[in-house]
Amino acid sequence: MLTWEQYAAGWRELHGGYDPHTGSAFVRGWLRLAYLLGRAAARVGATPGVVTGIGLALSVGVPVAARLPLLAALLVVLSAVADTIDGAVAVLTGRASRAGQVYDSLADRVGEACWLVALGVLGVPAWLLLGCGGCAWLHEYVRARATAAGMNEIGVVTVAERPTRIILAVAALVAAGTVGGAAATAVTAVWTALTVVGFAQLMLTVRARLR
Question: Are 175 and 72 in contact (CB under 8 A)?
Fold first, then answer.
């Protein structure tokens, strides 16, 4: 089994040379968690594809469970754990592939759409959800297109990366279940604002790197 340093090197290679050691404490902690959970999953024979499928199934269940917001929030957490594990298992078992990265990214986008649908069921305005989802989608689309255009690194870790989206989706669902729909709308508005800021951060970096 790979050590943490060997895993970090493999992760760096798959993420445009971004060094996990240079990230914020939050980023470093998230990746350490991924390593520990992935190592445990690999030891019991889990494969990246199966873990990705489980995570996607859990996300699809979020809007189904939306009338029970705390349960929906738990499903988001579990889907996020699965999403954390699948990439780690791929690196730790030597099964990382370009096709797997595409499938994982697709599952992430579908999962995030499911979370927003759940918030819509709970009364968050559609226009706010569309703005939030649209900016998040643009964030990932621009990074992918920039990579295809020659930006051979992650560019910048913005305020609207995947972990932020997970935290705010959970916060919005918990707010809906404990305070009410207005609180969920307020959290979603914060989420939307951060996606706009993150998109701007990314665009500035892409512009500088691809001149």
Answer: no
Token representation of residue 172: 């919005």
DSSP 47: -
For residue 124, the one-letter residue type is V
What letter represents residue 151's amino acid?
M
- pTM for the predicted model, two decimal places: 0.90
CA distance 127 to 191: 13
Q: Provide block-wise average pLDDT over 10 residues at a time, the chain (211 residues).
A: 83 75 76 89 91 96 97 97 90 86 92 98 97 95 89 81 94 96 96 96 92 82
Q: How far is CA 97 from CA 49, 71, 102, 186, in A?
A: 11, 33, 9, 39
How far is it, in rounded angstroms, from Cα 109 to Cα 88? Answer: 19
